[in-house]
Amino acid sequence: SHSLSDISVLCSYVHLQKLELPHNKIQLSCVSHMPYLVVLDASYNEISNFFEFQPPKNLKEVNFSHNRMTKMRDLSAYASLTKLVLDNSFSEISGLEQCCRLTHLSLAHNKISRISGLGGLPLTHICLKIEGLEHLKSLQVLDLSQNRITSLSGLENLHLLGSLNLEKNLQVSEIQECKHIHDLLLLRDLSLVENPVQEQPDYKLAVIFLLQHLTVLDQEAVTVEEKVSSVNMYDPPMDVVAARDHITHLVYQLMQPQVLYETLPSADSPYPMLVLTGPRGCGKRELTHRLCQEFNEYFAYISHTTRGPYFGEENGLDYHFVSEEAFQSMIHTGKFIQTIQYGGHSYGLTRDAVEDVAREGLACCVHMELEGVFSLKKTYFEPRYILLIPTQAEKYIGHLKARGLYTQAQMDAAVSRIELYANTNRQRPGFFDNVIPDWEDAYKTLRQAVKEYLLLEEQEEGENNNRASPDNTSTELASIRRREQLVREAIVGKSPGVYSQLFKSDDSRASSALSVPSSAGAFSDLAADQLAAAVSPCSDRRPGSNVKPILPPIPTGR
């Protein structure tokens, strides 16, 4: 690089094999006197004539990049060429048909509109590099077909691009390359015909999912059904996930021998269940245990998981901890009512666990993530759902850190899900029966809600009234005992719906009275029921003669 313009002195160097003179202002007439030349680098000069010298018989490598050449000529006399660099000079490539040894060809930074005569060459490397596309802000149509493009990087800023043709590139093999054009919201037409990426599983749905604004893919119109299917496959709504989960377990259950369950649905008295839900670390597990300890005559706790126990957790008490293989086996044998995947682990509620609790005359109390709630709502169970949602993010994060159980990524994911729970509550009125936002008084509020569900306050008031009114007649006492007996029998599944007896209309009472022979007979039945209740043995965990009512009936339409 000495701004040389005259190199005629080199004409006497007839045995020269390598000549490198970049960044000068030379002409190459002297090369005609170098028959043994092998390598020639004349890049960044002002050469206007293309190969205007006698061809050295062994010339293999030539670099003519960044000169003033505009037109190529026939190079059949240069049969030894193996590498040719012609960057930033030409608009049309021709004359290379007889270069039978050419393996490396670089045509970067050109304005090439046509390439011909390369079909019979042994090319292994070709560079058609186009840089600077990111600066073409007004570009709307881009045709890069029949190249060897491997990446779509560099197209991110072409926000007006509406059509992109990448046909027959043979190098675009990864669907993730579409992430580079994900934010081009005006892109409507994309063609990846005859690219290896088309061999990827579910290629079309994957591309449509990444580029939801496409209307034409591979010269075919994108349908609404394909867009919906792509979302359902790669980012399904919770309703879809829940429906798939429910269908899976229902099919596997139907493949097993059928039995009668203690928790079969009833029109007026569904099996009582209580479900606590909320983001990870919100305290739902601890609150569930406290409820089951305080209200141990009403609730029992059950659930399965494939994750390992945290410090202090016990198998069979906090969870039933099982391996992933055992969990999958339980799915395939129809054991589960619902399952979810969260944090890389599986969680589920089994039919047998619910039945074991029901046989003891207890209600089921569980906690789960929001996905589990959606799945459980697909079953015939009608639990009461209580949402525990942190309202102070900083305090919630501090609580997660204090527990020392979660990584930073897990804590970030948990915090991000707060809005998911809040949106579900806002967008689906009545989806949750109670929402408890107060962290400090969560159990106090939960306890009060449970007492209202169990009608414990009404019973306590009734007992106080009974003590204050010792003059109750024998008929009134018999009626009270009759109601208590019906409640106890209903929770263990030994009588028709208790609520059909407690909440009958006047007409139904009148019609049922017609079937009673006399009032004396009715009173004798009440006395017999009272005596049977007095002598019937009770389990230690089952409500006794002073049994509390179970959850009130679910309103119609839930």
Automatic annotation (TrEMBL):
Chain positions covered by the region annotation Disordered: 458-477, 535-558
GO cellular component: cytosol
Gene3D superfamilies attached to this UniProt entry: P-loop containing nucleotide triphosphate hydrolases, Ribonuclease Inhibitor
Domain Guanylate kinase-like: 271-455
Alphabetical list of Pfam families matching this protein: Guanylate_kin, LRR_9
Single GO molecular function: GMP kinase activity
Keyword Transcription on entry: no
Biased composition (Polar residues): 467-477
Keyword line: Transferase
Protein's name according to its UniProt entry: Leucine rich repeats and guanylate kinase domain containing
